[in-house]
Fold:
Amino acid sequence: MATKQDGAARIAENKKAAYNYFFEERFEAGMVLQGWEVKALREGKVQLTDGYVVIRNGELFIIGCQINPLKTASTHVNPESLRSRKLLMHKDQIRRLVGKVEQKGYTLVPINLHWKDGRVKCEIALAKGKAEHDKRDTIKDREGKREVERAMKSRHR
Structure:
């Protein structure tokens, strides 16, 4: 279910993206959704892990973001859980992104979905892929922090 944080309720988060990529810049984009998708998002029936963003004809589309329909979905609607969904951003921002994505090694990755003023927003990042040794460093840092927290916790008992 969505959690309240910084005035916006989080719907879903792509934790795998932070492990696989270095984030250069972050952007917020609106999403074009159908009614059944909004209802499914309210129930938390979404998965972002395999999602990525592409630019087609000067428009942004999120691909691989899976929104599973509710069992109570209407019979006259044919829900497609893996369809590509359009992202809404200003033209000048998209033009800037096109220039950066065409550079070597940059890609657009969805980081999270959240509610903002009753609308679904997708936070995307201009990202560069991590090498294998960078991923190992990330794991080492995370485990080091975990050990320090354990030591502090046992000391306070």
